Amino acid sequence: MRTTIGYTAESIGYVVGAQGLVSFASQTFFGTEWGWLHNVVDLPSTAYLGIVAVGLALIVGGVKMRKTPQPQKAA
How confident is the model at residue 13 (pLDDT cuts 50, 70, 90)? Predict the structure, then answer.
């Protein structure tokens, strides 16, 4: 179960981080809106960097969660 939750958190982190990065880059360098995140929230371009950080935290947390050894149950 821990492995499944770890992979799920990691996968969500990749999507959230990528959308934050795309939104930041599109607003900062091109003045347009790319991705789907701008349909959900309307944030200034620097706030999207916080979303990238949340995505990275989910990735790191997911990797750590699935890499930690599970305690063995006593028989």
Answer: very high
pLDDT exceeds cutoff 80 at 25: yes
Q: Which residue, chain included where needed, has tokens 């939750």?
A: 5
* pTM, to two decimals: 0.81
Interatomic CA distance for residues 27 and 14, integer angstroms = 20
Mark out the alpha helices in 1-75 (DSSP H runs): 2-25, 37-40, 47-67
Place of tokens 């947390």: 61
d(CA 54, CA 32): 23
Reduce the DSSP state of residue 5 to 3 states and report it: helix
Q: Tokens standing for 13?
A: 């982190």
Q: Which two tokens stand for residue 21?
A: 């990065």
